[in-house]
Task: structure prediction
Amino acid sequence: MPMSLMAPLVGGALALAGAQMQTTLNNPLADPYTFGVLAAAGFGASLVITNVIAIPFIPVEYQVAFIAFIMCLLTTLMIAGVSSIKRVSIEGVMLFGVAIMFAYDSMLTMMQYIATETQLQTLVF
Result:
């Protein structure tokens, strides 16, 4: 029952975040891929799965989600900082986001290369 009640709230929050991103960029195709936020989450999760990072005061079952969230937050703050300090255009912010996405994707590929077989299976799935 709690999951059934929470699903519309979480779905509404995600829809609101997507609408805000599209409004800010004046681009109806903007999504988390545009800023590299999704790639940052994947890279953060891969750091925990391959045992590169471990936080001792957080339970093991929550570490993947926590580090993924922290990486998303840091990426969002980095893009917001660059866009406010340099006064770049919307197109520049989007290009910076795409560059960040490719950087995180390449680091994720590196993590897949150094992972063991079991870790690689977890990373891919």
